[in-house]
Amino acid sequence: MSCWNFYTTDEIKPSGWLRRQLEIQAEGLSGNLDKVWNDIKNSAWIGGNKEGWERVPYWLDGFVPLAYLLENNDMIARTKKYIDAIISFQKADGWICPCTDDARKTYDTWAVQLITKTLTVYYECSKDERIPHVIYRVLKNYYEMLKNGEITLFDWGKARWFECFIAINFTYERFGEEWLCDLAKILREQGMDYNEAVHLWERPLNRWRFDTHIVNLGMMLKSEAVSCEILGEEYTDNAEKLHTVLEKYNGTSVGLFTGDECLSGLSPIQGTELCSVAEQMYSYEILYAYTGNPKWAERLELLAFNALPATISDDMWTHQYVQMSNQIACEKFPGKSLFRTNGSEAHLFGLEPNFGCCTANFNQAWPKFALSAFMHNGDKVINAVPVPSELKTNGVYIKLETEYPFKNEFRYIIEAGKNFDFIIRVPSFAKNLTVNGKPVQSEELAFDMHSGDKTEIRVSFETDAYFENRPYDLKTAKCGSLVFSVPIKYEKKMYEYEKDGVERKFPYCDYEYVPVSDWNYAWCSDKLDVIRNEINDVPFSSENPPITVRTSVNKIDWGYEDGYDSVCAKIPQSRDAVSDAEEILLYPYGCAKLRMTEIPGKAAAK
User: Fold this and answer.
1) pLDDT for 87-104, tens place per residue?
2) What is the DSSP secondary-structure string of 519-569?
3) For the chain, N or C: smaller number of CB within 10 Å?
């Protein structure tokens, strides 16, 4: 039984900077992909002749909650147009994916798993009563074909079998039929067991594999949480065991695991795919809801406030396929790609750098994060992630006014139409916690709310800026859930062109980011002074960040990675200072599109 349950888009609404972030997403690529990208605009899912596998379901998985959270009638209408078309093509036996009957055996049914998951999201938003029966028929057909051996899991479907459990659990709650338990067992039996692949995560190879693929691994972390109950198994927190190995051998300072496109070790110049950011966030949301363990919520914050905005442009019209912790340039490699299995353009900002999966899939990250602000269980309501939001549901009204994570002040306005317990999760890094001006020491704040109560709760805490040790005797600056980087100024080179029938034109064209400022630094002071600014129209602005950190650095002879002139060396070739100390402002990692994040400690004096 889950510890917490999610609210729906008609109960929870983003406000403040979070709403603005979603508005930028709606004004950018996410909100316009069906107008500009043929794989959505003319997809086989809606009767066209373009991609008919993962891209439309991926896009809808984020576009749907985005539309409903913003109450954007035009977007909601476009959502319904796509869902209506998809449903209209469902076959009499329940099959829904756009392929001919004789092609089913070779059609990778990852798309079945994904479209049913996406349809659950649509139902939660729209309450369209057709949807449970559509999903029922899809899953019943899937079960019969798998049971009879007409199809089997392979490739992506085999690697992502657990993704189907979102829809299986949804359907079992409504229909309670035993064949759904049997389907769950078949999928688990035919699916990949990642526990058998752990040894492969310790030494990254320049080889593409499903069991080291970074997106599969980001999804995999929630597998036990979504499957154990219907399989009749005990929950063992296997995710923590697997997370520990991934972090030890492939972790980054912003909570990601390197993967460009498969696991890539601890080097700060290896990349991480954007799809994995979105999927890892979703896994953490599920894991926190299922277990109630605050470690998953803190890990979620780390990704949402750093890795996610870092790899998408301010206007959210372009994105990278992979981001790097130490990213001094985003220029196409003229020769051999630096990345293990990705191409030379994977780190450019554009419409679909490297592959188009991230173009469609990054859309889910911010909307689902917004839906994780408040959760409930019976007469208990928890503020799981303290971001500006408004909750209005049966007998409960809570408005949270805050600029967190940029400022650590929270104002809760509560009106109780019934008795309920209100809980506030307190981050482990919070110092000098106060509630209504009085000092408190607690990892969780609890309040008994009674019907008719109208109250205001003010919470505040402090966070210390500090250096975190990283591999290769490097250090990263952190404060609360925010990671800070040395920002590198850059010029953009814009490329408008058409390739393989895909048009790239402003604002969804491709860009190289060319550095025009120094980057070869080492810390030369232990002092980190936090400066809190106002949030402007772009919350994670690359030009006017809402928070900065002042510190001192020396230049060092860092050097370039062998064979490249746009990639810093993995490890500095010298740590000796070649300049006097200078004072600089560090930017949040999510605001610094070019950046140095992991750099040496105090340099030897000049």
Assistant:
1) 999 999 999 999 999 999
2) --EEE--S--EEEE----SSTT-SSS-SEEEEEEEEEB---BPTT-SSSB-
3) N
